[in-house]
Write a structure and sequence with these properties.
This protein is of the alpha/beta class. The chain has one domain (4-341): 3-Layer(aba) Sandwich (Arginase, Chain A). The chain has helices spanning 25-35, 54-57, 63-70, 90-109, 140-150, 168-174, 220-238, 264-282, 296-310, 318-322, 327-341, and strands at 4-7, 44-47, 78-79, 85-86, 115-118, 157-161, 180-187, 209-214, 242-247, 286-290. The structure holds zinc ion. Zinc ion binds next to loops.
Length: 348
Amino acid sequence: MKTVGIVRDALFLRHRPPEGHPESPGRLKSVYAILDQGDLTGRLTLIAPRRAKRKEILLVHTARHLEKIRATADREVCALTRDTFTSAKSCEAALQAAGGLLEAVSQVVEGRLDAAFALTRPPGHHAEKSRAMGYCLFNNVALAAAFARRRLGLERVLIVDWDLHHGNGTQHLFENDDSVLYFSIHQRRIFPGTGLFTETGRGRGEGYTVNIPLPGGYGDAEYAALFERLLRPLATAFSPQLILVSAGFDTHRDDPLGGMVMTAGGYAAMTRSLLETARACCGGRLVFTLEGGYNTVALAESVKAVLMELADLTRHDPRQVMAQASAKRIAYAVHRATHVHGRLWNLS
Ligand code: ZN
């Protein structure tokens, strides 16, 4: 039986943006509730989270940024940007979210777990080196990649970001780096505005940033097809030793923020595709971290579908799911990506 770990902690519910904010504690409450009902009970291993240490946060952030977040502790509300807020326990929760993910990565890399999912908040992929942004305080997935490289000694890490939004922070933190390949598939022309096909990395990192910005209306079949047609050959060529996933569920058809039409089954098919890729490249080492997803029911069902797939309790076939894909939608994305990246990566 596969051993799948989760990071789960009541502290993550104590990060409380003002009433009515989409990134609410209710998101994780809904996820935790579904884990306690039925199919998954007793099938997951709890990873004890820990606070990220100062020197770990400084792997990607400036000391000034850390101090700025620390200064919010015990203050009822601080507005860091127009849409990014903290409450009294937000700093603690954010340090625990980052540290929880680092612990998950350690346990998967050491072989104590087959895979893991950090069910944490606040999310991370918009956080830049020196500023909070887009509901994110620390860039969890970037910290995890830097930690895997510099503390665990891995040479190549792949970050797959399937959130509705482009992970600007993650891209910027590794755009000069050829040891961390950042692959993002997201809706175009929405927040944060970055993530064009032509943003491909800089210097040594040229070609190691791969963006697939899509118009709205893409669903399970198209995402499965793009994972099979683009991500799989890319990952095979890059040959990572660990795959990290910025897993946002705001591409769900019921999500209030986006225009995509994914369902829980589609996330399961993408997870299967990643599991197969991870098995071929890196002994199956796969670690997810929660980013967006703002319909609490859709979010919980989708996270459950991913965990069921990771634990092999379901087996979705991405090739079967992609059979229904719109040929025109796939051709658009494959053509644009191949045009930009075809020189370095064999994507045909
Ligand atoms: Zn998002």
